[in-house]
């Protein structure tokens, strides 16, 4: 039966019909599962040859969500049509201005009364797909609202697609082309029937600055309770870590209100912040104006009950002596990560308040100063970017990773000459991209972060020459000049301020609606700081546009790291986070142009993310935060570094600590082998069974555990298990599961043996238990593995898209492990499980095989595979695959992007079935020119590979 016929039969006649391509799909936004209509649309845009969208309502944010895909289509010469309306006055003039500037999209306006259609039609290579339902082209409809949509597919001669096409062509013929003249006329008479701004305000968090009575938001409520509890422990200092724009100043005022200070001192590092901070405190604390005063270069109101001071002034001996050390019982320091400076140290040492509160968005410092130590390691509350977006505390942002200027194969990099950065062609290129991706309301109020002072100055000059009012600011400009340019930007007198470094932090310009990055990503911290300059909510904007011009920079790998919040430094994760960006919360979105993705991938390939220098840097940062030698569990809980990276490098955490001179005890050679076994084999947490048994032995120090007691333990811990799982657990812990070489290597540290259907501790383990440092290190590994195990569902041995090593897959499937992993090679079979491990794109210089295998995806649900050589149609494994019957055939894939990759994990793609008519014996040449027999066959996957994963696995990256 034809593929589409099978799909329709499965959807509308019999759901058990074996079909996995072109299936109809019911689409509902599910933020918890990161499953959105937007993802389906974006993937269809990537594959289409043309498109036709017919929607009543379009917002700039909805249009932004597909702009990167439209830009990639334009590069391929692919165009499409959008039909929309003026129904209810929902579509604002600005969205029509954005639409008319799309180079590969023809737009028309339907004059039909009550036009309310919502459909997306895509012409693919061999079929059409169309999505019809309730979703307009708005960000809420694409990603957040409860919407119903159905995706169907059809061949060209299908009646449904023919009817839709005919109808669209008729509607198109009767509609009005969108032109600049039409927009000018529309603006003259535009009057929304539905008040769009009112709708926006109803769906946004209330702007605190507009309220007479202010109440704490969710974040502030929790932080206030934590601060109160902290002071209840007699703590004298506390730290708040809160993303820019989440209301730190109001939080400080709320805490001052609950503290009820006799006198309060609020310290900032810039005078321009003082008046705003004081106004916020007045709203919360109330009282006469005479209670409030400023101590700065321009004001000396030193007797005020609530004193707001700049650090430059309050740190001077004259003023400290006049105030006195005990003048304030409550002191707050804003942007406290600057406290490593001498002026801050001097001030903190001088005043003796009952409580000192520090606030920062970025406590991790590149200058080595330990903020956590300064506040006695008391972090009262912490909320980072992703959490703040989830709580709707920040303005949504649309991030576009776009390719920077390139000419004659020469790309922007860290060493590019200034003349290349500011030549006329690059300026025109930048302006074209900035205009294409635009901003809310189409009137830019943007900050442009440059790499050099000369670049900022010259680009500002060239933008002005192009008719785009701009200015530039660097560390050379004084405070008055900075405040002047910020005011000009907010009032719309200029569109851009080009800057170097000075706006990374500590500046509040709520009306900024566009961030442009023209520099190398120096660190994840600075990236988030610069991104955060636009995230403060303001009535003037619904979202912020972030345009990141990605050159050929070594640090490009930091971009997905910063956006996803994944600091694990796992290369495979970073690649996936570049392609599958559904992790972004709320109405924010991330899009990379194709070439920009390739530059990030190239950076990931080259980066040394597990170097000892990198690992030690993360270790020191975490130790500074905790004030003690961190364990693997600390790394896991803080999300600062994946413990598996350390173990992959050093085999045990003890070995790592010894290497950097931080070990707090010593292990014997046998103890270290035992620790290595648990670390290397079990830390990943792919199943909890072995770890639970180990924890039980180490906590109780009992000597034996029977099968029955083990199963009872699993029940008590609410762990799903089968009889095979229990037997496998015993085999693993006794080492009998492992192949001979590994078993021999681990035997000196053997922890258990099997005796009379019991797991029995060895004499070695009894001896090991006498070493408290060994116990501590071992429990740390066990507890970390148990935390990791929570990401697995547990009721199935393997989960689709999770990563497994070969031996882990065999362990979970209770298969035999009789040869080492290299010996397993591409596949092995036992216990009615046939596991196939494929490394795609092994590279031109791959030397591990005598023969070049051409395993490949034919599409999302079909995989072509070759046996080892020499094999014939009658070889044992082929006999199994010809008649699989009760055999389960599993596919594991990893992608090798460069020879530097040392990934050993494979993504599990589920079970598959051989297509019997494709099984064929062939001859293939070896590297020495001989021909050897192999068998080729195609498989049908039970679950088609999801689009983002498919792109991730098959994507060809050019060096």
Automatic annotation (TrEMBL):
Name recorded for this polypeptide: DEAD/DEAH box helicase
Entry-linked CDD domains: DEXHc_RE_I_III_res, PLDc_N_DEXD_b2, SF2_C_EcoAI-like
Superkingdom of origin: Bacteria
Keywords: ATP-binding, Helicase, Hydrolase, Nucleotide-binding
GO terms, molecular function: helicase activity
Domain Helicase ATP-binding residue range list: 229-381
PROSITE patterns referenced in this protein's UniProt entry, alphabetically: HELICASE_ATP_BIND_1 (PS51192), HELICASE_CTER (PS51194)
SMART domains in UniProt: DEXDc, HELICc
Membrane-traversing stretches: none
Protein's organism: Candidatus Vagococcus giribetii
Residue intervals of the Helicase C-terminal domain: 432-587
């Amino acid at each position: 039966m034809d593929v589409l016929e099978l799909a329709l039969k499965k959807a509308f006649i019999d759901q058990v019909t074996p079909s996995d391509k072109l299936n109809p799909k019911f689409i509902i936004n599910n933020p918890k599962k990161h499953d959105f209509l937007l993802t389906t649309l974006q993937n269809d845009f990537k594959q289409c040859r043309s498109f036709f969208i017919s929607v009543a309502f379009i917002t700039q944010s909805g249009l932004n969500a597909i702009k990167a895909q439209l830009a990639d289509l334009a590069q391929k010469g692919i165009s499409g049509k959008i039909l929309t309306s003026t129904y209810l006055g929902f579509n604002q003039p600005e969205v029509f201005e954005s639409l008319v500037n799309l180079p590969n999209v023809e737009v028309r306006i339907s004059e039909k009364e009550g036009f309310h259609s919502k459909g997306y039609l895509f012409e693919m290579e061999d079929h059409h797909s169309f999505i019809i339902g309730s979703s307009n082209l708005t960000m809420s409809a694409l990603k957040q609202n409860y919407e119903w949509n159905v995706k169907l597919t059809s061949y060209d001669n299908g009646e449904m697609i023919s009817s839709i096409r005919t109808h669209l062509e008729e509607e198109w013929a009767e509609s009005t082309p969108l032109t600049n003249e039409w927009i000018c006329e529309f603006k003259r008479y535009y009057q929304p029937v539905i008040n769009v701004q009112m709708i926006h305000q109803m769906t946004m968090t209330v702007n605190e600055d507009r309220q007479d009575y202010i109440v704490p938001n969710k974040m502030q409520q929790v932080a206030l309770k934590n601060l109160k509890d902290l002071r209840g422990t007699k703590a004298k200092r506390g730290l708040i870590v809160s993303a820019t724009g989440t209301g730190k100043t109001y939080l400080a005022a709320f805490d001052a209100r609950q503290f009820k200070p006799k006198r309060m001192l609020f310290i900032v590092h810039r005078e321009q912040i003082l008046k705003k901070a004081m106004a916020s405190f007045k709203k919360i604390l109330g009282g006469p104006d005479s209670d409030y005063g400023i101590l700065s270069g321009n004001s000396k109101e030193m007797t005020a009950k609530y004193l707001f001071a700049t650090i430059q002034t309050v740190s001077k001996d004259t003023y400290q002596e006049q105030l006195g050390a005990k003048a304030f019982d409550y002191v707050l320091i804003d942007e406290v990560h600057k406290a490593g400076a001498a002026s801050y140290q001097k001030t903190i040492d001088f005043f003796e308040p009952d409580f000192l509160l520090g606030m920062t968005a970025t406590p991790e410092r590149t200058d080595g100063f330990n903020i956590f130590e300064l506040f006695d390691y008391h972090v009262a509350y912490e909320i980072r970017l992703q959490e703040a977006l989830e709580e709707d505390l920040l303005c949504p942002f649309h991030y576009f990773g776009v390719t920077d200027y390139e000419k004659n194969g020469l790309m922007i990099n860290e060493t590019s000459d200034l003349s290349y950065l500011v030549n006329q062609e690059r300026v025109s290129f930048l302006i074209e991209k900035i205009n294409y991706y635009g901003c809310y309301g189409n009137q830019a109020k943007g900050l442009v972060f440059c790499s050099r002072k000369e670049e900022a100055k010259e680009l500002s000059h060239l933008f002005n020459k192009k008719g785009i009012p701009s200015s530039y600011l660097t560390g050379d400009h004084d405070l008055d000049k900075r405040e002047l340019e910020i005011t000009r930007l907010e009032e719309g007198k200029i569109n851009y301020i080009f800057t170097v470094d000075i706006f990374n932090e500590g500046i509040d310009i709520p009306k900024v609606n566009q961030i442009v990055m023209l520099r190398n990503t120096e660190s994840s911290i600075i990236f988030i700081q610069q991104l955060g300059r636009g995230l403060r909510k303001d009535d003037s904007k619904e979202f912020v546009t972030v345009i990141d011009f990605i050159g050929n920079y070594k640090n490009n790998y930091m971009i997905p790291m910063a956006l996803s919040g994944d600091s694990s430094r796992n290369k495979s994760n970073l690649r996936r986070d570049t392609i599958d960006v559904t992790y972004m919360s709320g109405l924010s979105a991330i899009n990379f142009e194709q070439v920009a993705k390739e530059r990030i991938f190239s950076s990931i390939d080259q980066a040394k993310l597990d170097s000892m220098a990198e690992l030690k840097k993360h270790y020191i940062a975490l130790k500074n935060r905790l004030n003690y030698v961190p364990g693997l569990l600390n790394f896991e809980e803080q999300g600062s570094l994946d413990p598996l990276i350390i173990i992959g490098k050093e085999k045990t955490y003890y070995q790592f600590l010894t290497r950097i001179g931080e070990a707090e005890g010593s292990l014997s050679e046998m103890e270290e082998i035992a620790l290595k076994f648990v670390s290397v084999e079990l830390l990943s947490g792919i199943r909890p069974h072995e770890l639970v048994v180990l924890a039980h032995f180490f906590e109780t120090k009992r000597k034996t555990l029977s099968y029955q007691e083990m199963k009872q333990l699993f029940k008590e811990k609410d762990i799903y298990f089968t009889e095979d799982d229990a037997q496998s657990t015993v085999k693993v812990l006794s080492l009998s599961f492992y192949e001979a070489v590994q078993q021999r290597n681990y035997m000196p540290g053997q922890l258990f043996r099997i005796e009379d259907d019991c797991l029995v501790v060895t004499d070695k383990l009894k001896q090991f238990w006498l070493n408290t440092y060994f116990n501590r290190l071992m429990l740390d590994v066990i507890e970390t593995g148990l935390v990791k195990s929570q990401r697995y569902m547990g009721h199935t041995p393997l989960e689709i898209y999770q990563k497994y090593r070969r031996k882990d897959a065999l362990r979970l499937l209770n298969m035999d492990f009789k040869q080492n992993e290299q010996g397993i090679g591409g596949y092995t079979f036992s216990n009615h499980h046939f596991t196939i491990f494929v490394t795609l794109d092994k590279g031109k210089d791959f030397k591990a095989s005598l023969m070049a295998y051409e395993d490949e995806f034919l599409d999302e649900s079909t995989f072509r595979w070759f046996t080892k050589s020499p094999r014939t149609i009658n070889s044992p494994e082929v006999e199994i695959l010809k008649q699989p019957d009760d055999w389960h055939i599993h596919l594991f894939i990893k992608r090798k992007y460069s020879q530097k990759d040392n990934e050993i994990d494979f993504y599990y793609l589920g079970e598959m079935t051989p297509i019997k008519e494709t099984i064929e014996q062939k001859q293939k040449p070896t590297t020495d020119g001989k021909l050897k027999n192999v068998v080729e066959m195609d498989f049908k996957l039970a679950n088609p590979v999801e689009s983002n994963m498919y792109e991730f696995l098959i994507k060809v990256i050019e060096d």
